[in-house]
Amino acid sequence: MTFRWHAMQIGRALSRLFNAVTGGEGDTTTSAYVYRLAIHRGRKLGLPGSWWVAVVDWLLREPGHCQDAYYWHLKRDLFQDDL
Question: Got the DSSP string for the chain?
């Protein structure tokens, strides 16, 4: 396995940790969770989900990243009913 693969795994783990620490689900990445919040007009740390989506997509330099992550999680039934 390559360094890039390991870096991606660490990034995903940190995303799940950040999501859990800030009130989200531990099995869900921050990207997918904030997109879900945006759909349901929810908030994370007092800020609207749509704001978080814009920030995460910008930080990763990947427009649509949160939406793609949301549908990836949805397809695998990784969301709990916490909204």
Answer: --HHHHHHHHHHHHHHHHHHHTTS-TTS-HHHHHHHHHHTT-EETTEEHHHHHHHHHHHTT-TTHHHHHHHHHHHTT---S--
Q: CA 79, CA 55: separation in Å to the nearest integer?
A: 22
pLDDT by residue for the chain (83 residues), tens only, comes to 899 999 999 999 999 999 999 888 889 999 999 999 999 988 888 889 999 999 999 999 999 999 999 999 999 998 887 66
pLDDT of residue 80: 81
Residue ranges per structural domain of the chain: 3-75
Half-sphere exposure of 2 (CA within 13 A, CB side): 3
